[in-house]
Amino acid sequence: MNQDIIVSIDAMGGDNGPSVIMAGCARALTRHPSLSFILHGDEAELKKCVEELPALKEKIKIVHADVSIAMDEKPSQALRSGRGTSSMWKALQSVKDGDAHLAVSAGNTGALMAMSKFCLRMMPGVDRPVIAAIWPTLRGETIVLDVGANIGADARQLATMGVLGAAMARALLPVKKPSVGLLNIGEEEIKGQDNVREAAELLRHWDLKSLEYYGFVEGTDIGQGTTDVVVTEGFAGNIALKTAEGTAKQLSTYFRQAMASSFMARIGAFFAAGALKYLRRKLDPRRSNGGVFLGLNGIVIKSHGSIDGLGFAHAIEIGVDMAINDLNDKIQTDVALISAKTEIIVEQDEQKA
Amino acid sequence: MNQDIIVSIDAMGGDNGPSVIMAGCARALTRHPSLSFILHGDEAELKKCVEELPALKEKIKIVHADVSIAMDEKPSQALRSGRGTSSMWKALQSVKDGDAHLAVSAGNTGALMAMSKFCLRMMPGVDRPVIAAIWPTLRGETIVLDVGANIGADARQLATMGVLGAAMARALLPVKKPSVGLLNIGEEEIKGQDNVREAAELLRHWDLKSLEYYGFVEGTDIGQGTTDVVVTEGFAGNIALKTAEGTAKQLSTYFRQAMASSFMARIGAFFAAGALKYLRRKLDPRRSNGGVFLGLNGIVIKSHGSIDGLGFAHAIEIGVDMAINDLNDKIQTDVALISAKTEIIVEQDEQKA
Predict the structure, then answer these.
(1) B269 and A272: CB-CB below 8 Å?
(2) What is residue B56's predicted lDDT score, i.e. its pLDDT?
(3) Which of B242, B243, B270 has the highest number of chain A CBs within 10 A, making it the mutation to test binding with A?
(4) Are B59 and B35 in contact (CB under 8 A)?
(5) Which of A176, A189, A304, B105 is most buried, by CB atoms within 10 Å?
(6) B263 to chain A, minimum CA–CA distance in Å?
């Protein structure tokens, strides 16, 4: 597919201002020369920034927005102050209006979630958005969701997440029928939460061609890449994600300390410099930047707020991959299928009654 | 303190049989020569094993048990088949009868939890046991609880866990007034679960001299060692623990692969061999083996089932540290204090009404 993808950018979102966001756009452009951008934000400021990025100049359209959403604004407050007027809202509006294929923001997560729901609305059959992360594993990459959009999830919501995650896996990973695991705890004394067990039954019952239900997985399985998709509710998912980030940072520190701990170790580090550089690159958190909002009528990517150009470019590229691979069409087809299958159960139940 | 500690051992628990358990006892003895052991299990088998461990011979008393609890037995089934008769139950009974200072088992977690509750009973003021893990961090060690005894926890249970964890921290870590954090998710759109917020209020209200309530922490804070104690309910706690284990394994694999990825890297690994050996030792999961059951009238340590002698010795040593430092006295004093403080609130509320 050689589509020209148009990316709508909330240029005012994030901790580091529009210059970093635009540097990210320029970097994404070098890898995907057919991209173009609609940049939403303070026109004067954006024009000034673009002066330093000549390559970007012909690939952008600047749309002025009066309001910028602050990083610490509450979602309800952000909706009141920024609905229709903010760079964040306008970035979403471009997707809604069909002017762009996806929106990317490094702004306030809660505000972006609330505005996405209001502006783009939920897909039929999905009742709330979830955030999916692309998790680097020993086997490649695994989609983990929900990593923090909602606390708690009932069986149906968990099972639906499996369907959304599998569609995303088919769009991003080299896999046709992704395996889906439900995150659970394996201790014998606890047979898992009721909702998790019921979600397993639903996924088995739906028996979709688009995914392979694997069964329960544990925390250790995520990093091993046991399944292509791991489903959990947002509280545990966010804690898993943050704990893994913390552990990765901790081990990298140990390793760095070890390689500088003695004269001999430093000689070793000198010889292994090439390998260590490759490893640093592999572990660079900027290369896994970009949370994906799933379940909306449109592709929305949330970048970390404190990211630099390289990280923001990565978030853009995830969204571009999903647009090229028609993520939302895939999701809609699958969700329609489970709605139909669930209706059959309801009808059967009614006939019995 | 130069106490002679007696350790009661479920010699039949674990995946690898009594010879490994007893090798662990022998190893613990070399570091704590004043220890002695009561070994519960099949007398003939244990006698045979001890022949190969002459140092252990004078330090043990073997108590025969007819029944061994299987690793996959359900807790209810284990209670029926093993109450009063199994090596696991008898190991706990020795603690109850005052014959031993602590019990250690590498057996079935669920069965051990159920038997501990029945045999030792809960401490007054604590309504259910929790499992605490000692988590290696960049600053030293952090106590994380609950890592899987119970799914879900109300505000009072979470706050009580803070008190139990702080007592354990005072027994094990070089800290007089441990800092306690409540694990939460930091996204702006979600203000955290109600129970977590209410637990924070309780801890602030109790205002105990035995701990410093720090506030909310996120998953990333655990590995950084931000607080001495991290409190969460068992589902999220177990997932955090297993996810960290998985991530540590994943990064260790990356390091190993990097140091073998080229001729130059292998030369580097040769020079850095000493440092890398130290690092391997530091990351050895056997050195963080040993989950602690808190809230019972007695000290019970759960070892991983698939552990070797070194790992089992580590689990014993954790329990010995806690016995020497009067963990349960510390807990009882603190729990009595919070019960008194809560009664005052209840009385005030009644007067108002």
Answers:
(1) yes
(2) 92
(3) B243
(4) yes
(5) B105
(6) 9
